[in-house]
Amino acid sequence: MGDSDGLSGHRERLRTRFELGGADPLPDYELLELLLFRTLPRRDVKPLAKRLVARFGSFAEVLSAPIERLMEVEGVGHSTALDLKIIAAAALRLTKGPVAKRQVLSSWGSVLEYCRAAMAFADREEFRILFLDKRNQLIADEVQQRGTVDHTPVYPREIVRRALELSATAVVLVHNHPSGDPTPSPADIRMTHDIIAIAKPLGIAVHDHIIVGRAGHVSFKGQGLF
What pTM was estimated for this model as a whole? Predict the structure, then answer.
C-alpha cells in the first residue's frame, strides 16, 4: 500500500468515527485533524494537529490563538491559520445566535456559553459589554478595551456614555482572565462598584459582571459581590 493509500484510509476511518460517534469520543488533536483535512488535502496532518494542541493546550485554544502565533508552529502557513480563524468565527457566530434573538436574562446559559467562547481562551484581557434594552434584549455587544495578559484599562464614564448613546437601560459586564482563574481581584470589584455608582443615577442597571477563564466563570451577582 502506498503512502497516499494509507493517508486516504486514515482520513476515511477518522471521518467514519466522527459520523458514527460524533465529536465527544475524539481527542482534541483528532477533531483538529478533521478540520485540517480540507485545508491541507495532500498532507498527513496528524503530526501538525498534535503540535498545535501541544503548543496551545487544547482544541479551543488553538482556534482562539491569533494568526501570528499559529504561524509560529511548523507547518502552519497563512492560509491554514486563516482557515482556522474562519472556523473559530463561525463557531462564535453559532453561539451568539441564541443570545442575539432572546431576552438575555431568560437565556443565561446561552449568554455564558457565548462569553466563554468569545473570551475565555484569549491571550490578552478584554472587557466586553452587552448593552440591553428595557425588555433585556441585546442592543449591542462591544469589546470596549483590550489590554495585556493581566490588565485591561476600564473607564466607567465611557461605558455609561456609550450606554446612553445606545439608549440602553441595562448592561452586563464581561471580561476574561488569561491566567485561567476567573476569581475576581480587588481591582475588579472596585471597578464594578465604580460603574454601578455612575450608572444607577442615570437609570442604567448593571445586571452582572462575569469573569471567564479556562477554569470556568464567576458571576459577581451570584457571588453576592454587589
Answer: 0.72
